[in-house]
User: Which sequence fits this backbone?
């Protein structure tokens, strides 16, 4: 009897050990993909050096070339496409971001904030809102940059401009004109800095870079829109008139209104 009990006890012990050996192992924790570390941010001195190289107004080289040739922003825009310029500023309230905008666009304003990340290649990509672009700077040439819309492979060349408004004013309209409705003829001067002398109607003006869907070059004068035409040495200024679609909406196109002035450029 004692032998039987010892035999049963041994069988129970062996069975217990066998079951433990066949039990399921403790499951491992779900593997976690390690996060790619973000780039280091520029120091204050590095940000200052970066802005010296990049801050300011940038104009597409092809637009500039066409503007010089035709003296017409409308023709330059038609030839070169829709994105002639961008501006970089240290405007963000976040000290770790710089600010990019297209503030010279008349019909569609966009802006983006890009981190001051250290990048050996000086290539920055923005996916801010619906404005997607790639921007590349050259460390050995502070007046040249490359831009592509929607990350396209082809990047267009841009040049840094000291003052966009002065450039446009100087190329398109600045100069001394004669108003022959007066005897003797009255001198009217449009200055590159956007001031006007000799006119009673307005004392400031600004040539519009982006003419939108209008078929004429444009100026803003005392915050009113006017169309301009240059033929030979004659400058004609027209009222800009809203042409509503007539479908009950408030949408409209700009069309040429009545003639306001015609001046002859002084030789």
Assistant:
């Amino acid at each position: 009897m004692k032998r039987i009990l010892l035999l049963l006890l041994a069988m129970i012990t062996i069975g217990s050990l066998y079951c433990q050996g066949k039990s399921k192992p403790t499951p491992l924790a779900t593997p976690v993909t390690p996060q790619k570390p973000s780039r280091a941010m520029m120091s204050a001195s590095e940000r200052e050096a970066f802005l010296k190289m990049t801050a300011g107004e940038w104009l597409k080289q092809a637009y500039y070339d066409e503007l010089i040739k035709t003296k017409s922003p409308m023709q330059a825009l038609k030839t070169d496409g829709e994105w002639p310029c961008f501006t970089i500023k240290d405007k963000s309230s976040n000290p770790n971001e710089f600010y990019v905008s297209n503030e010279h666009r008349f019909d569609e304003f966009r802006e983006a904030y890009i981190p001051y990340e250290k990048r050996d290649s000086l290539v920055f990509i923005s996916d801010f809102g619906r404005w997607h672009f790639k921007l590349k700077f050259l460390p050995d040439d502070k007046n040249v940059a490359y831009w592509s819309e929607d990350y396209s492979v082809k990047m267009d060349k841009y040049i840094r401009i000291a003052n966009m408004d002065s450039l446009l004013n100087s190329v398109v309209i600045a100069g001394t004109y004669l108003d022959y409705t007066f005897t003797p003829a009255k001198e009217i001067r449009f200055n590159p800095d956007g001031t006007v002398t000799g006119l009673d109607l307005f004392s400031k003006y600004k040539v519009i870079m982006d003419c939108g869907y209008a078929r004429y070059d444009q100026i803003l004068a005392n915050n009113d829109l006017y169309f301009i035409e240059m033929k030979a040495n004659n400058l004609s200024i027209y009222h800009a008139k809203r042409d509503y679609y007539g479908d009950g909406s408030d949408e409209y196109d700009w069309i040429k209104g009545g003639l306001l002035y015609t001046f002859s450029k002084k030789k």
Remarks:
- Residues 2-22 form the longest helix (21 residues).
- Residues 1-37 have pLDDT under 50 and may be disordered.
